[in-house]
Amino acid sequence: MDGEVAHIAALVISANHRLRNPHDPMVWFSRQRAFARVGSVHFEIATDEAPGKVRRTTVARSADEWLEQLARSGTRRVLLGFERQDEEIVPGETIPDRVAAGFAGGGSRWTMTTESDSGHALGWRAGWRAAYPKASDGRIWAVRYTATAAEPQSPGRGIEAAATELRHALAEMSEFAWSHDAKDVNRRFTSALAILEGAPDPIPVPSSTSAADTLSEPARCLLHAAQRGWMFDAMEQWGRLAVDEATWRDYARRAEALYDAVTNALVAAVNSSAPPPASGEAPRV
Question: Fewest 10 Å CB contacts: which of 106, 205, 206, 264?
Answer without folding.
Answer: 206
